[in-house]
Predict the structure.
Amino acid sequence: MPFTKLGLSKPLLKAILDQGYDKPTPIQAQAIPIILQRHDILAGAQTGTGKTAGFTLPILQLLSQKSEHKSKRPVRALILAPTRELAAQVGQSVADYGKHLSISSTVIFGGVGIKPQINRLQRGVDIVVATPGRLLDLASQKAIDLSTVEYLVLDEADRMLDMGFIHDIKKVLKLLPKQKQTLLFSATFSDEIKKLAEGLLNKPKLIEVAKRNESSANVKQVVYPVDRERKRELLSHIITEGKWQQVLVFTRTKHGANRLTGQLEKDGITAAAIHGNKSQSARTKALANFKDGSVRVLVATDIAARGIDIDQLPHVVNFELPQVPEDYVHRIGRTGRAGNNGEAVSLVCIDEHTMMNAIEKLIKKEVHKTIIQGFAPDPAIKAEPIQRKSQGHQRRRSGGNGNNGGGGNNSGANNGSRSSGNRSQRSSASQRGR
C-alpha cells in the first residue's frame, strides 16, 4: 500500500517524497488511518519500524485541517519522550514532515538554557515535543499552558516508566484537558504499561506489528562467552579483526563507559562516550562524530538505547548485559532498522549467566553462543554477584524517587544542569527529564 492510499494531504505526501520514502512501514500503514479516524491507540512496535512518522504524519494532518489563526498559537499537540536525544529526533521528524504546512513546533528538554525555550513558547507553537522534567519546570513557571492540548503522544512509554517518570507523567496529565486523543507507543508491554493504558486511553485500538517483547528478525544475535577481565581485550579484537568501522557499545554504568572509552583509545580505536553525566553539547558532538565516521566506537549507557537513530548501523555490542531484560531489546534495536540487517554481539562472563537466561526467556529464544579462539573462559573462575547500583529498580518499587533516570542501572540520564546534591524529590524527578 502506498502512502497515497492512507488519506494524507498533498503537502504531507510531498514531504514524505522529499525524505525518500514511497511505501509506509507496517506500523505506519496500520496506525495512520486509525489516528486519522480520531481513535486512541495502544501501539506495540520495535524501534526502527518507523513509528515516529506513524504518529507525526496523522497529527500534522489533523492539525492542518483545523488551522488556528490567533495571534498567539495555543499548544495543540504534546509529544512526550524519555530522553533528550529521542525528543530531538522526534522534533526533527515533525519539522521534516511539516515543512510544507503552516504548523509550528518546538522541542524542549534540559541540559540547555531554559530562557530561549520560554521565548519560543511565548511566540506560540502548535506542537511541543518535550521531556517530562523540563516540561514541568516550564509549567511551574507559567511559561506553557497545556489546557488546549488536543493530541497527546507518549513515545517509548515503557522507557519512561523504566526511568521512573510515572509521577512526572501523572503531573503532566493533570495539566491536560480530559477530552483529547491519546496515542501510546511502547516497544514492550509490561504490566505497568497495561495499567497506564487502562487509566489513560479511551477505548483504544490495539496495534502490534510484532510479537510482544520480541527482538527484530533482521538482527543477527550472538553471545561470546569470555572472562570478565578479558572483555575489553576481546572487544578490541573483534573490532580490529572484523574491520568494524561503526560500533555502538553498551555498558551498565557511566564510569564504565568512560573507562572503556579510554582503553579503546589506547588500543588505537577512536572512541567517544555518551551518558547522563555528559553535557548536552558533549553528547551532541559525540553522536555527530560517530555518525560522520570520525569516531569508530560510541560507548553508551542505556540513555542512548532509544535516542540514537543511525541509518544502517551495522554493529551493536553489549559489553555488559543490562540488568533489565527489556533493555536488551531496546539496545539491539539500534541496528537492523528500517529493513536493514544488523549484528548484535553480547560479551557474557560467568557473572551474567542469570541475566542472559532472563533475556532469552523474554525474547523466547536461545541466543547462539560462540567461543572465540584464544578467549575461552577459565572454568576455575567463580561467579561474583553484580552489585545493583540501580536506582531505576528502587524507583519502580518506591515510586520514582531516584535521580539518575537510568533505565534500570546507574548509567542513566541525569538530564539536568543543576547539582545533584540536596534536592527535593520534585527537583530530582524534574532533573531526569531534562
The first helix runs from residue 10 to 18.
